[in-house]
Each structure stands twice: as structure tokens, then as C-alpha cells.
Amino acid sequence: MASQESQMQVMDGANGASSDEPASKRVKLDTPMQDSQDAPEIQKTDRVKGVAPIKQEYLILAPGQTGAAEENAAMDDDAAEGRTAPNPSDKRDARDARDGGGRDGRRKKQKGGQNKEREFGTFSDAIRLCNSVAWTPEFSPRPCKQGERCNGLHDLRKYLKEGRRADLETFGGKCPVWETHGRCSSGWRCLFVSSHMQEIEREDGRKELVLTVDSTKVASGDDVEGDEAKPGVVNMVAPQVKVDLSRKKVDLNKSEAYLAWLGQDTERYRTHHHKQKGDEDVAKDYRAQYIEPPFKPSEKRRLYFGPETPTLAPLTTQGNLPFRRLCVELGAQVTYSEMALGMPLLQGAKADWTLMRAHQSEVTPPRYTPTSIIRDYDNAKDLKFGVQIAANIPWVAIKSTEALTRFLPHLRLVDLNCGCPIDMVFKTGAGSALLDSPSKLERMIRGMNAVSDDVPITAKIRMGVRDDKPTAQKLIERLAFGSPEMRDTAGAPGCAAITLHGRSRQQRYTRAADWSYIAECAALIKSYEKKSDELADTIREADANTLPNGGKMYFLGNGDVYSHVDYLDHVEKAKVDSVMIGRGAIIKPWVFEEIEKGQYLDKSASERLTYIEKFARYGLEAWGSDELGVNFTRRFLLEFLSFFTRYVPIGLLEYLPPSINERPPAYRGRNDLETLLASKNYKDWIKISDMFLGPAPAEFKFQPKHKSNSYEIEAEG
Ligand SMILES: Cc1cc2nc3c(=O)[nH]c(=O)nc-3n(C[C@H](O)[C@H](O)[C@H](O)COP(=O)(O)O)c2cc1C
Q: Where is this region: Disordered (predicted)?
């Protein structure tokens, strides 16, 4: 039985763990449980594998059921993540989503239990308002570029009456964007427009509709009008840049010069490697023929990852700007964009450039409380937000890196995805396919470093492609030092940090991440630090800056972290510099707060609802409060809820610690809201979204990613 005196397991980061057991087994009594009247009894008990130990009184059992593991069917966590998520600001993506087509324009075949051809309905007004009148006072429209041919509506009053649905009543009918920022970038299309419009009588007696502004709240730079204006959002790339990229008018001269050199160098390297005995005269040795590249990596801004910088993983679809903003607010210190594909970036695709946007809270420095002196790291110049790209050939990785670092002013780093397991990426030779092409990967990292100015380059890897053949250790050595030939001539590749997800490509989420392998890799990297000092002594002066961070390559572990206990345990035992958190952060974004406070937080259902509200507010700010923006917000809120509703309140658990790999049998919460927030039915998620976004339009559709249950995902890294 649970007792009021029961105490929760807490690991004290400062003092370290008292036990040598892994976090999943250890139980230590310490801090009283927060917020819960009904604290679980802490005891070591054999847990049923894969099943969350819900207290008997909360179980909902149909007659004849026992709540045992085998009844907990179809709880596999591996399925499809896919690229079905449309980009809110990209009308083409909205069309793709509507048509069930992917971003590559090809229709995907329905397979297995995954809803690959998900449809999301149309999100538009009944009558389209022309942009020339969308943000202006009624009597002073901008000139319409289409002139006579324009099929948009120019009559504002008609639009407000017939062209769109009535204003929403949520948020007290007040536009949350306007309330925060003093103006609303959705203009007349805002679904809360009556809260920021007025009718003014002019001297000639005519009555004019105008949009109001609260100048006391408008921040400098936020007074831009139109589609592209998003208060608090940085890394907005001008439309003309994307047009120029699409017309190949952007001169990526550094990359061109580097690639020309790389072509010749690859040939020298190949000849050297294929030389036969006796071919000495033809091939000599690589070093003798080596010619310096046209661009050496410039001095990079230094990075820092430590126990105080819990890191939010790159998460396609889920790791969107409103979600990252919520996580930063709750204590995430480092964030990554969703993965963008190199080629569409180079083609100026709006969807991929939009992924590179960040919230202003992400461009503040990460927490920094090192225990030893970190040379030349300037925390004031550092920021939280980095971007991730995937590429299958060096020129794509190199050119897209040059474009990113040229056009995005706020970048902590550019990370190369070497872990994405999905076929669409893997089969092109990108993502986890790079794990089996170390030479290509090395060339990518070197090239990216050469063209990225002061922005550091990092990589995210998996243990290997196949389960029975982990290759990460070799790869890490390669990323740290380069192949012997390249090392002698060009120095180290300059990879500033590596994140290792402790699974192979083949491995399913049902099997736990391998933290002992991660620990081995961490030990290996520690042993390199000495070696790189020696290397720094021996490489020529000019190449010293090929060693990032003054010789330190940071190493992050990743996989299955679900609480401060897991986090601190891995920092301490696996000896990683920091830990990256993916699904755990979507299920309970306050995991970052737990890490900061060093204790479990039993968030009540109403507190959890405030996070949903925040997501809705932040979504409206990022994607707009018009019909399109509201429904993109709804779409992504439902995606978020598909994970968020997996949280099992710890007050309902018989034993701790909670584990991300355990699924609950059917249960009810401590109140109706808690029960609703545990629903696996997406129709309930839509009900939750209605609380903040009003009723979903009749045409709105949402299909969870998996038909049989909403747990299914396909990870991209
Ligand atoms: C929905 C989802 C999307 C993901 N998208 C990416 C991605 O774009 N890039 C990437 O490197 N990894 C991606 N991953 C992998 C995560 O970054 C992380 O490596 C993985 O989920 C393991 O960490 P976890 O156990 O903390 O979730 C994704 C994972 C999930 C669940």
C-alpha cells in the first residue's frame, strides 16, 4: 500500500549516485514527492517487463482481464514517422498533405500498420482575400500585382462577412498574438480579428475599418507587415534568397573552389589506395602529391556541452519551433532544428528553409557552470540553437552548409545527420547510410568545416547499420583524427561534437538503447584527448585549428532518457559530456525542469494542460492566427499530443523509476482531465485542441501515425 510518508527516488547530481546499479534498477529514498497526495510506495519489486506498474485502484479492467503484459497488445514503438508533415508556411506542402503526397511529390505506398498517406484536410478561407488588402486600412490598399487578372477578393467587408468563418471564442476572444506583441501578423485574416480592429469615422463621414496596434508592446523590428512577419522569430530568410537559390543565382564560391580541389584530391587518394606493389612510380605516396585545399577551416567559435546543458534532440515533425520554445522555457539548454534535406535547401525550397527558423529564446546562451576552466569558450557569444541537415554526397553537404551559414545569422552549429534510418533517406546514401561510408563522411565533415566560417560542424550517429556489427567506435576515431593519410596532410576533420544514439539502424525501439556501448565510446574519446594534444604538437602550425575546441571533441549520449535519474546516471556512469533527449521530452517536456531541480515532478493534469495551451499560443505566433495557421497549429498540437498523452503520472505508479519503454494497461487518472490526457483516441486529442483552437472545421482531418495505436513512430536518427 502507498503511504503518505513514502518518498520518491531522487538522484543528487552534486553528490553523485550512491549505487552502482543502473538507474532502471536503483531506488533511493530522498525528496518528498511534489504535488501528489497519493505518493507511491517505493520498493524494489520485480517489474513486469514493458508494463508500467499502475496502481491497482487506477486500472480499468474489462471483465476477465488482469492487466497483464500480454494484454497490452501492439505496443511497439518503431513505426513510421515519415515525411508526411506539411510545412505550415508552404502552400505546396499543404497541397501535398491534402493530396496525400510526400515532399518529393511522389505518392507513398500504404504499408503495414502505418498511416503513410495521412490527410489533413484543407485549411483555407471560403473566399481568398487578396494580399494587397490583407494588412492595410480599408481605404488604402497596396497596389495589386495581378491587377485585372486577380481572383482574390478586394472587398474587406464582404470578406469579413462571407469569406471566412466567424471569430473564435477561445482565449476570451482576444488574439493571443496581438495580446503579446501588440500587433498581429495575420492581419484581417486573423480568426480573432474583432479584438484588434476598429471602425473609424473619417472627416468626410465615411467609415473605415482599420487594424489596431498597441505600440507599447511592439518590439523594434517587429513592425514589419505581411506574410513573412513573425514576432520573436529569427533566421527568417528573405523570399528573394530562395528565389535566387532556385534559379541557381547564388554564388557559393567557397564550396565551388573547395569541391574543385576535392575532385582532384579524391582522384589522388583513389590512385594511392589502388596502387599495386611495384606501382610506386605511378602512385608515389599520397602525402607527396598532396596540394593544400583552397580554404582551410577558419577559427571556429568554441562549443561547450556539460551536465548543465541537457539537450533536446532533433525531432522531425515534433521538434518544431513552438515545441522547442516550450522546452527551452522548461530548461532545455541546447536545441536542434528538425532535419532539413541538403538538396531542397540548395534549391531554395521554402519548406526546408522554414525549418531553420528559431525562436528568440533559442538564441540566448546555454547555461554554463563548468567545474574546470574551459579555455577560449565565450558563453556570451554562444546560443542554444543548431540546425541539422542530411545529405548523401559531399557537394550537397558542403554547399548547403555554405548557404546555411551565409543566410542564417543565428546558428550554434551545423549537425550532419548520420543516423536517419528511414528508407527514403538511407537508400539515397544519406542518414545512417553514412555509417558505412566513413571516407565519404570524413570528406563531408572536412568540406563543411572549410566553408562554414566560424560555425562549428558536428555529427549525430548511431551504433552502426546492423545490429551485430557496431561500427561507431571506428567511426568516432575517424571523425576525431581523420584517416591516417588525411591526418598527415590536412590535420583532423574538425568535428566539434558527436552525439551517439545507442541503437543500430536495424534495432527497433522495443529494445533498450545500449548505454554500456555509449560508455565505451565515451572512454575512447577521453583517451583521444591526450592523443589530440600530442597531435596538436606535431601538426604544422597552420593546421592547429583543424582540432576543434582546442582539441576537445564533445560527446553526447542519447537513448531512452526519461527523467533526471536517467540523465544524471548517464552523465556520471557513462561519462558523456551531456545527454540528448528525444521522446522523453515530447512525452514530458518538464523532464528538463526535473533535471535542473534534481527531482521528480508529479505534474497535475491542469499544469499539463497549461503546456498544451502554451503550445497552442506559440503555434499561433509561429504559424499565424488565420485559418491556415490555426489548423497547422492544430495539426502539430495533435502530433504533440500523440506523445504527450503517453505520460503516466508518477502518482499513479506503484514503483519508480518510470521507464520510457513501459506502456500502461488501460487506466483512469486522478480526475477527469487526467483521464482525458491519457486517452489514446485521437478524437479525444481533437477535443483537447478545440479547447484552445475552437472547433475544428468540418474538413479538418487527422490520422495518427499508426492505425492500431498512436504510439507508432519512425525515428529519423
Ligand atoms: C518523432 C521523431 C523524430 C525524429 N527526428 C529526428 C531527426 O530529424 N534527426 C535526428 O537526428 N534524429 C531524429 N530522431 C531521433 C532522435 O533524435 C533520437 O536520436 C531518438 O529518438 C533516441 O532518443 P530518445 O530515446 O531520447 O527518444 C527522431 C526521433 C523521433 C521519435
A: 1-120
Rg, C-alpha atoms of the chain: 27
pLDDT at residue 687, rounded to an integer: 95
Residue 289 or 455, more confident: 455
The model scores a pTM over 0.90: no
Q: Which residues contact 530 (CB under 8 A, 6 or more apart)?
A: none
Q: What's the DSSP call for residue 364?
A: S
Atom from ligand 1 closest to the CA of residue 417: 11
Question: Residue 531 and residue 533: Cα distance in Å, rounded?
Answer: 5
For the annotated catalytic residues, the residue numbers are 420
How many angstroms from the chain centroid is the CA of residue 343? 19
Name the helix (H) or strand (E) containing 8.
strand 7-9
Query: Are 193 and 103 within 8 A, CB to CB?
Result: no
Ligand 1 centroid, distance to 693 Cα (angstroms): 28
Strand partners, 88: none
Closest ligand 1 atom to the C-alpha of 660?
Answer: 25
Interhelix angle 394-407/253-273, nearest 10 degrees: 150
Please give the Cα distance from 267 to 288 (Å, whole number).
14
Mutation test residue for ligand 1: of 316, 355, 714, the one with most atoms within 8 Å of CB? 316
Amino acid letter, 383: L
The pLDDT value recorded for residue 264 is: 87
Q: Whose CA is nearest to atom 12 of ligand 1?
A: 717
Residue whose CA lies nearest to ligand 1 atom number 22: 559
The ligand 1 atom nearest the CA atom of 313: 17
CA-to-CA distance for 130 and 209, rounded, in angstroms? 16
* Distance from Cα 316 to the centre of ligand 1, integer Å: 7
Dump the DSSP string for 555-599. EEEES---SHHHHHHIIIII--SEEEESHHHHH-TTHHHHHHHTS
Per-residue pLDDT reduced to its tens digit, 317-365: 999 999 999 999 999 999 999 999 999 999 999 999 999 999 999 999 9
Beta-bridged to residue 198, according to DSSP, are 210
Q: Which of 11-15, 76-80, 305-309 has the highest mean pLDDT?
A: 305-309
What distance separates the 2 farthest-apart alpha carbons in the chain? 98
Half-sphere CA count of 518, side-chain side, radius 13 A: 32
- Å from CA of 361 to ligand 1 middle: 22
Residue of 501, 587, 710 to mutate, ligand 1, most atoms within 8 A of C-beta: 501
Per the CB < 8 A criterion, the answer to whether 255 and 293 are in contact is no
Look at the block and give the residue holding cell 589522388: 268
Question: Which residues contact ligand 1 via a Cβ below 6 A?
Answer: 81, 313-318, 338-339, 388, 417, 419, 460, 501, 513, 558-561, 581-584, 713, 715-717
Output the CA 323–ligand 1 centroid distance in Å. Answer: 14
**How close is the Cα of 559 to the center of ligand 1, in Å?**
9
Name residues whose C-beta falls within 8 Å of residue 138's C-beta, 6 or more positions apart in sequence.
Answer: 156, 157, 208, 209, 210
393 close to 381: Cβ distance less than 8 angstroms: no
Note the Cα 43 to chain centre separation in Å: 36
Residue labelled with grid coordinates 486529442? 685
Strands 358-359 and 233-234: antiparallel
C-alpha dihedral, 326 to 327 to 329 to 335, nearest 10°: -120
Grid cell 491534402 in the structure block, residue:
98
**pLDDT for 690 beyond 70:** yes
